[in-house]
Write a structure and sequence with these properties.
By secondary structure, the protein is an alpha/beta fold. It has a single domain, classed as Vaccinia Virus protein VP39 (Rossmann fold). Helices cover 39% and strands 20% of the residues. Strands 3-2-1-4-5-7-6 form a 7-stranded mixed beta sheet, with helices on both faces. Helix 2 crosses helix 5 and helix 3 crosses helix 4. The radius of gyration is 16 Å and the shape is globular. It starts with 5 loop residues before the first helix and ends with a strand. The mean pLDDT is 94.
Protein backbone atom coordinates (compact mmCIF):
# COMPACT_ATOMS: atom_id res chain seq x y z
CA UNK A 1 0.00 0.00 0.00
CA UNK A 2 1.30 3.45 -0.84
CA UNK A 3 2.27 5.72 2.05
CA UNK A 4 -0.81 7.90 2.42
CA UNK A 5 -2.10 9.27 5.72
CA UNK A 6 -5.54 8.46 7.09
CA UNK A 7 -6.66 12.03 6.51
CA UNK A 8 -5.47 11.88 2.90
CA UNK A 9 -7.41 8.65 2.39
CA UNK A 10 -10.61 10.35 3.50
CA UNK A 11 -9.94 13.26 1.15
CA UNK A 12 -9.37 10.82 -1.70
CA UNK A 13 -12.56 8.82 -1.23
CA UNK A 14 -14.75 11.88 -0.79
CA UNK A 15 -13.21 13.49 -3.85
CA UNK A 16 -13.39 10.48 -6.17
CA UNK A 17 -14.81 11.35 -9.59
CA UNK A 18 -15.77 7.85 -10.75
CA UNK A 19 -16.44 4.36 -9.47
CA UNK A 20 -13.18 3.18 -11.02
CA UNK A 21 -11.25 5.80 -9.07
CA UNK A 22 -13.09 4.96 -5.88
CA UNK A 23 -12.48 1.24 -6.37
CA UNK A 24 -8.74 1.79 -6.81
CA UNK A 25 -8.53 3.89 -3.65
CA UNK A 26 -10.37 1.32 -1.55
CA UNK A 27 -8.41 -1.59 -3.02
CA UNK A 28 -5.21 0.16 -1.95
CA UNK A 29 -6.57 1.05 1.49
CA UNK A 30 -8.20 -2.28 2.33
CA UNK A 31 -5.50 -3.83 4.51
CA UNK A 32 -5.15 -0.75 6.73
CA UNK A 33 -8.78 0.35 6.63
CA UNK A 34 -10.02 -1.13 9.92
CA UNK A 35 -7.01 0.09 11.88
CA UNK A 36 -7.22 3.57 10.37
CA UNK A 37 -10.93 4.02 11.04
CA UNK A 38 -10.57 2.72 14.57
CA UNK A 39 -7.84 5.30 15.16
CA UNK A 40 -10.19 8.03 13.89
CA UNK A 41 -12.95 6.99 16.29
CA UNK A 42 -15.33 5.60 13.65
CA UNK A 43 -18.73 5.03 15.27
CA UNK A 44 -21.24 4.29 12.50
CA UNK A 45 -21.13 0.47 12.82
CA UNK A 46 -22.21 0.18 16.47
CA UNK A 47 -24.95 2.75 15.90
CA UNK A 48 -26.29 0.82 12.91
CA UNK A 49 -26.04 -2.49 14.74
CA UNK A 50 -27.92 -1.07 17.70
CA UNK A 51 -30.77 0.02 15.43
CA UNK A 52 -30.84 -3.38 13.77
CA UNK A 53 -31.18 -4.92 17.23
CA UNK A 54 -34.11 -2.61 17.96
CA UNK A 55 -36.06 -3.21 14.75
CA UNK A 56 -35.03 -6.62 13.41
CA UNK A 57 -35.92 -9.14 16.08
CA UNK A 58 -35.36 -12.39 14.17
CA UNK A 59 -31.70 -13.32 14.35
CA UNK A 60 -31.99 -15.44 11.19
CA UNK A 61 -33.53 -12.60 9.14
CA UNK A 62 -31.69 -12.06 5.84
CA UNK A 63 -29.85 -8.72 6.00
CA UNK A 64 -28.04 -6.90 3.20
CA UNK A 65 -25.00 -4.82 4.15
CA UNK A 66 -24.93 -2.33 1.27
CA UNK A 67 -21.40 -1.03 0.94
CA UNK A 68 -19.98 -3.59 3.33
CA UNK A 69 -16.35 -2.57 2.87
CA UNK A 70 -14.16 -4.67 5.13
CA UNK A 71 -17.17 -6.00 7.01
CA UNK A 72 -17.03 -3.88 10.16
CA UNK A 73 -20.82 -3.74 10.43
CA UNK A 74 -21.07 -7.46 9.75
CA UNK A 75 -18.66 -8.20 12.57
CA UNK A 76 -20.84 -6.34 15.06
CA UNK A 77 -24.04 -7.93 13.77
CA UNK A 78 -22.45 -11.37 14.03
CA UNK A 79 -21.61 -10.70 17.68
CA UNK A 80 -25.32 -9.94 18.15
CA UNK A 81 -26.02 -13.38 16.59
CA UNK A 82 -27.40 -12.27 13.23
CA UNK A 83 -26.60 -15.24 11.02
CA UNK A 84 -27.80 -14.48 7.47
CA UNK A 85 -25.67 -11.58 6.32
CA UNK A 86 -25.02 -10.67 2.69
CA UNK A 87 -22.59 -7.92 1.75
CA UNK A 88 -21.95 -5.94 -1.41
CA UNK A 89 -19.15 -3.54 -2.27
CA UNK A 90 -17.41 -2.25 -5.39
CA UNK A 91 -13.90 -3.03 -4.09
CA UNK A 92 -12.54 -6.56 -4.36
CA UNK A 93 -9.79 -5.60 -1.93
CA UNK A 94 -12.29 -4.60 0.73
CA UNK A 95 -14.42 -7.67 0.07
CA UNK A 96 -11.38 -9.91 0.52
CA UNK A 97 -10.84 -8.52 4.01
CA UNK A 98 -14.55 -8.92 4.79
CA UNK A 99 -14.52 -12.50 3.50
CA UNK A 100 -11.63 -13.41 5.80
CA UNK A 101 -13.74 -12.46 8.82
CA UNK A 102 -16.15 -15.29 8.09
CA UNK A 103 -19.33 -13.50 9.15
CA UNK A 104 -21.09 -13.16 5.77
CA UNK A 105 -23.01 -15.93 4.06
CA UNK A 106 -22.37 -14.22 0.73
CA UNK A 107 -20.31 -11.31 -0.59
CA UNK A 108 -20.68 -9.81 -4.05
CA UNK A 109 -18.98 -7.07 -6.03
CA UNK A 110 -21.86 -4.75 -6.88
CA UNK A 111 -22.28 -1.01 -7.24
CA UNK A 112 -24.89 1.05 -5.44
CA UNK A 113 -26.77 3.12 -7.98
CA UNK A 114 -26.85 0.27 -10.48
CA UNK A 115 -29.14 -2.74 -10.78
CA UNK A 116 -28.49 -5.19 -7.93
CA UNK A 117 -28.20 -8.91 -8.58
CA UNK A 118 -30.90 -9.95 -6.11
CA UNK A 119 -34.56 -10.83 -6.57
CA UNK A 120 -37.37 -8.62 -5.34
CA UNK A 121 -38.13 -8.82 -1.60
CA UNK A 122 -34.93 -10.73 -0.84
CA UNK A 123 -34.05 -9.12 2.50
CA UNK A 124 -35.76 -8.37 5.78
CA UNK A 125 -33.47 -5.39 6.24
CA UNK A 126 -30.88 -3.36 4.37
CA UNK A 127 -28.17 -1.52 6.28
CA UNK A 128 -25.65 1.00 5.03
CA UNK A 129 -23.05 2.70 7.23
CA UNK A 130 -21.00 5.63 5.95
CA UNK A 131 -21.67 4.76 2.31
CA UNK A 132 -24.28 7.31 1.26
CA UNK A 133 -21.85 10.20 1.04
CA UNK A 134 -19.83 12.41 -1.28
CA UNK A 135 -18.23 10.49 -4.16
CA UNK A 136 -20.15 7.31 -3.34
CA UNK A 137 -23.72 6.09 -3.80
CA UNK A 138 -26.31 8.51 -5.27
CA UNK A 139 -29.83 9.09 -3.87
CA UNK A 140 -31.22 6.99 -6.73
CA UNK A 141 -29.69 3.88 -5.11
CA UNK A 142 -32.67 3.75 -2.76
CA UNK A 143 -34.88 2.54 -5.60
CA UNK A 144 -32.93 -0.71 -5.84
CA UNK A 145 -32.46 -1.06 -2.09
CA UNK A 146 -36.22 -0.76 -1.65
CA UNK A 147 -36.85 -3.27 -4.44
CA UNK A 148 -34.80 -5.94 -2.69
CA UNK A 149 -36.39 -5.28 0.72
CA UNK A 150 -39.46 -7.34 1.58
CA UNK A 151 -42.77 -5.77 2.65
CA UNK A 152 -42.55 -4.72 6.27
CA UNK A 153 -38.75 -4.70 6.05
CA UNK A 154 -36.45 -1.96 7.25
CA UNK A 155 -33.80 0.25 5.67
CA UNK A 156 -31.29 1.50 8.23
CA UNK A 157 -28.55 3.89 7.13
CA UNK A 158 -26.43 6.91 7.95
CA UNK A 159 -26.15 10.31 6.28
CA UNK A 160 -24.01 13.24 7.26
CA UNK A 161 -25.94 16.50 7.62
CA UNK A 162 -24.12 18.24 4.70
CA UNK A 163 -24.76 15.29 2.38
CA UNK A 164 -28.39 15.01 3.45
CA UNK A 165 -28.99 18.69 2.81
CA UNK A 166 -26.82 19.25 -0.24
CA UNK A 167 -26.63 16.06 -2.31
CA UNK A 168 -30.28 15.37 -3.07
CA UNK A 169 -30.86 12.88 -0.27
CA UNK A 170 -33.35 15.01 1.64
CA UNK A 171 -35.51 15.43 -1.45
CA UNK A 172 -35.34 11.69 -2.21
CA UNK A 173 -36.21 10.58 1.32
CA UNK A 174 -39.10 13.03 1.53
CA UNK A 175 -40.42 12.04 -1.90
CA UNK A 176 -40.44 8.35 -0.96
CA UNK A 177 -42.35 9.20 2.21
CA UNK A 178 -44.92 11.34 0.36
CA UNK A 179 -45.44 8.54 -2.16
CA UNK A 180 -46.09 6.04 0.62
CA UNK A 181 -43.14 3.88 -0.41
CA UNK A 182 -41.90 3.82 3.18
CA UNK A 183 -42.50 5.50 6.52
CA UNK A 184 -40.01 6.91 8.96
CA UNK A 185 -39.55 4.92 12.15
CA UNK A 186 -36.61 6.75 13.70
CA UNK A 187 -34.09 9.51 13.10
CA UNK A 188 -31.31 9.71 15.65
CA UNK A 189 -29.87 12.88 17.12
CA UNK A 190 -26.77 14.15 15.34
CA UNK A 191 -23.31 12.99 16.33
CA UNK A 192 -19.79 13.07 14.87
CA UNK A 193 -18.87 9.69 13.41
CA UNK A 194 -15.16 10.44 12.92
CA UNK A 195 -14.27 12.65 15.88
CA UNK A 196 -10.50 12.21 15.60
CA UNK A 197 -10.33 13.10 11.90
CA UNK A 198 -9.38 16.76 11.56
CA UNK A 199 -11.51 17.33 8.47
CA UNK A 200 -14.51 15.47 9.94
CA UNK A 201 -14.57 16.57 13.57
CA UNK A 202 -17.12 19.33 12.91
CA UNK A 203 -19.31 17.25 10.56
CA UNK A 204 -22.39 15.81 12.18
CA UNK A 205 -24.45 12.85 11.00
CA UNK A 206 -27.65 11.00 11.75
CA UNK A 207 -28.88 7.45 11.38
CA UNK A 208 -32.27 6.82 9.80
CA UNK A 209 -34.74 3.94 10.00
CA UNK A 210 -37.50 3.55 7.41
CA UNK A 211 -39.98 0.71 7.12
CA UNK A 212 -41.79 -0.51 4.03
CA UNK A 213 -45.56 -1.02 4.26
Amino acid sequence: MSKVTREQRLEQVYGAKSNDELRAIYDDWAQAYDQDLQALGYSYPPAIAGLVGRYVRERDAPILDAGAGTGIVGEVLAILDYTRLTGIDLSDGMLAVARAKGVYAELKNQILGERLDFPDDAFAAVVSAGVLTSGHAPPSCFDELIRVTRPGGHLIFTLSVPVYEGRGFRAKLEALSRQGVWRSRETTPTWCALPRAAAEAAIMARAYVFQLP
